[in-house]
Amino acid sequence: MQKFQDPFIGIAGMIGAGKSTLAKSLGEHLKLPVYYEPVQDNAYLADFYRDTKRYSFATQIYLLNRRFQQHQEIIWRGGGGVQDRTIYEDSVFAKMLVKLDLMDQRDYDTYLHLFSHMSNFMCRPSVIIYLDVKPQRSMERIAERSRDVESGITLEYLTALYQGYEEFVAEISRTIPVIRVDWDRFRSVDDIATRIQEEYMRGSFLREVSWEGN
Q: 184 catalytic, yes or no?
């Protein structure tokens, strides 16, 4: 039987989905190190939200570099880990920025080429957990946590981002097992950790976890 040993678990989802909360809880539950998304020390984040078009490319390159560093550290240190947002998701944001005319196509092409070269040196995560949070709910969660840099985020932006995530999940699940969770129906970390192990053991490449009716 396939063993759920030293897993590399990626947590994916919209802004405000609760990725950091789940990553922390899973890390504690499974006794794995947690690698958080660079927010507090992100040198570009405030400028990105202030003037998105001007700073979109620089921000995406910064995040790609930091995420690659985390990804490789998880692999080379061994023992598994939980990553708060995966390197694969950065392309969702980049693609969405081009669609909204907030990034030049030339910059996007450069970004994709760089990511392609990096991917040649990356081992895939064991599983990705996708926290499915709809745009309106994401907007509410952003308002609840009241980060100044996120005050300019619009529902239009989040709607485009959500569509990008739907496309991302359909694509990435062809090569990496994805467990899709309706975050509003989520119970406890004990429940989800157990279900993650169960679904991972089945070897399916796209599972939807629900506790409805239980």
A: no
Residue 214 lies in a domain: no
164 neighbors 172 (Cβ within 8 angstroms) = no
Catalytic one of 84, 90, 132, 148? 84
**Within-domain flag for 40:** yes
Condensed to tens digits (0 to 9), the pLDDT of residues 163-180 reads 999 999 999 999 888 888
CB 194 within 8 A of CB 137: no
pLDDT, tens only, 105-134: 999 999 999 999 998 889 999 889 999 999
The token pair that represents 119 in the structure block: 């991917």
What pLDDT does residue 201 have?
62
Residue whose entry in the numeric block shows the structure tokens 């708060």: 84
Nearest to 175 by CA among 110, 134, 126: 126
Q: Structure pTM?
A: 0.84
Residue 97: partners with Cβ closer than 8 Å, 6 or more residues away: 52, 56, 60, 103, 108
pLDDT at 12: 94
CATH (domain of 38): 3.40.50.300
Yes or no: say if 135 and 155 are a contact pair by the CB < 8 Å rule.
Answer: yes
Count: domains in the chain: 1
Domain span at residue 80 reads 8-209
70-81 tens-digit pLDDT: 999 999 998 899
